[in-house]
Amino acid sequence: MKIALIGYGKMGKMIEQIALARGHEIVSIIDIDNQEDFESEAFASADVAIEFTAPAAAYGNYLKAFAKNVKVVSGSTGWMDDHGDDVRRLCSEGGQTLFWASNFSIGVAIFSAVNRYLAKIMNGFPQYDVKMEETHHIHKLDAPSGTAITLAEDLVACLDRKNEWVKGTLQAPDGTVSGSSECAPDQLAVSSIRRDEVPGIHSICYDSEADSITITHDAHSRKGFALGAVLAAEYTATHNGLLTTKDLFNFDY
């Protein structure tokens, strides 16, 4: 398979290593200093482009790839509020293909399935309230993380007594805490911590007077995210439309 890389930071370089090890060919690498390569024959020859860039750049990158009829796998977040409807239209009516996920880790895909299943179970146990916390490295600008938002949206969709998620506290790298974890009974508070070089920790806790139940995904490195992105590219090469990890990993629960 011919792969183009859009974004050549730590994730892009790791994706390159894994893709090459799996026998794929990297035909184009586009970063901030060679945007003109979107117009190159090499980029247009790609079966799939894997995009990991900043939220402000993601949507524009999709359009440039779609203009060359190149399918896209993307882990960039923060673009859906402004451009989600347009991207869905391009994929449903315009014949384009985007595989999007807030997190490509296989472990997170499993964790997400467990999250949905546990939330459905908890519909029968109203004595448990629930909250969520995510921890990431100090360089991460968005809070909550895109993965936490996806987990929160899934939980709210499956747990009848929660209608929406809200931002909880934010602990900055210097230890200062802003915001509040207090919320209405029908809301889910999602708190964030920024410290050290943590790749990503997501915890969901159901708490009652009698006990608590906590599920956690703790990423050891970015390698799991990079492998998942390449697996998604392999899937995307033979599928069309707007795709997600629920298409790639079909868990029965």
Task: Outline the structure in words.
- The protein is built from 8 helices and 12 strands.
- The protein starts with a strand and ends in a 5-residue tail after the last helix.
- The model has no long low-confidence stretch (mean pLDDT 95).
- It has helices spanning 10-21, 41-44, 55-67, 80-92, 106-121, 146-158, 223-236, 245-248, and strands at residues 2-6, 25-30, 48-51, 71-74, 98-100, 129-136, 164-171, 177-178, 187-194, 201-207, 212-218, 242-243.
- The protein is of the alpha/beta class and 253 residues long.
- Strand 7 (164-171) and strand 8 (177-178) form a beta hairpin.
Give a short summary of the structure:
The chain has 253 residues and is α/β, with parallel strands linked by helices.
Key attributes of the depicted protein:
alpha/beta; 25% strand; six-stranded parallel beta sheet; 12 strands; six-stranded mixed beta sheet; 253 residues
The helix count comes to: 8
Q: How are the strands of the largest sheet arranged?
A: 2-1-3-4-5-12
Structural class from helices and strands? Answer: alpha/beta
What is the succession of H and E elements?
A: EHEHEHEHEHEHEEEEEHEH
Please indicate the percent range of residues in DSSP E strands (runs of 2 or more). Answer: 25-35%
How large, in whole angstroms, is the Cα Rg? 19 Å
Shape: globular
Low-confidence stretches: none
In this structure, how is the largest beta sheet organized? 6 strands, parallel
What's the average pLDDT? 95
Total count of strands: 12
Tell me which oligomeric state these chains represent.
Answer: single chain
Distance between the termini: 33 Å
Helicity level: 25-40%
